[in-house]
Amino acid sequence: MNGSLNIKSMNLYNNVDRIFNELNEIGKSDSDNLSIKDLTKFDQFHYHGTDAIDIAIDLLEINSNSKILDVGSGIGGPARYIASKTGAKVTAIELQSDQNNLASNLTNRCGLATKVNHLCGDILDYDFKGQKFDAVVSWLTLYHITNHKILLTKLNDLLNLNGFFYTEDITSRVDLSDAELKDIEKEIYGKHLPSFDKYISNLEHNGFSVVSSEDMSNSWTEFTKTRIKTYNSEKDRNIRVHGKEVFESLSSFYNFVGQNFSNGKLGGIRIVAKKDLN
Ligand SMILES: C[S@@+](CC[C@H](N)C(=O)[O-])C[C@H]1O[C@@H](n2cnc3c(N)ncnc32)[C@H](O)[C@@H]1O
User: Fold this and answer.
1) Whole-number Å distance between alpha carbons of 198 and 176
2) Per the count of CB atoms within 10 A, which of 5, 63, 259, 275 is most buried?
3) Each residue of 99-122: pLDDT tens digit?
């Protein structure tokens, strides 16, 4: 099980209300109504923003009849975007209460509270009381969870017959030393980093048939490289908007991630799988 204290060793998860600083910059007070467009630059805690969500919407054919579970929903960016673009009902589960409270606040202010239901809890032990979903989706979350046998059994059970599982997740591209693993655990709370091939076989051994898979390593290496460059090139602006502490904390997080993709240690996977029928 994940402790919600340890996960805060990952700097992305500190000062999450920094999004209010960005909203103030575009003239929004802390209680104004918001549109999805006001938020998407700041509320997507994965790679390639809403382009990545559009890919999932297309591949899974999400529409207004769909019931979706978003696992590790962060401050709610993907869940809100899916609900607003497709009209689907989205249940969004998030481990950290500060992020979940912020997610609810932003969802209410976007007028999406009837479409997106935010739950605070650990996916491994949350009781969904027999509810089933047409698809489980998850961006950059499952690498935080050590035991994927328990996780995949749970997710499988939450799916309707013919249900889909979609995830974008971190993999390892080399055998990592104990020291590297320790560093990765501290900096990005990485607890489960199989190779690309192992990721696929884990699914196949735990009740899923893989429909498609894509190695995201090169794409995410480029994305994370550009992210550091951009964030640091706007240093003065970012310090003015967020203060020095937030700037340094986020810059150090972006640097660690960028370096570990660029040096070939971390990689990524995008995968669509279907619940096995037997
Ligand atoms: C990198 S963030 C991604 C957030 C969101 N998916 C997005 O793309 O914007 C991963 C999130 O997963 C959450 N998480 C980690 N383990 C979890 C668990 N066992 N149950 C629910 N959420 C979890 C973390 O608290 C964190 O907010």
Assistant:
1) 15
2) 275
3) 999 999 999 999 999 999 999 999
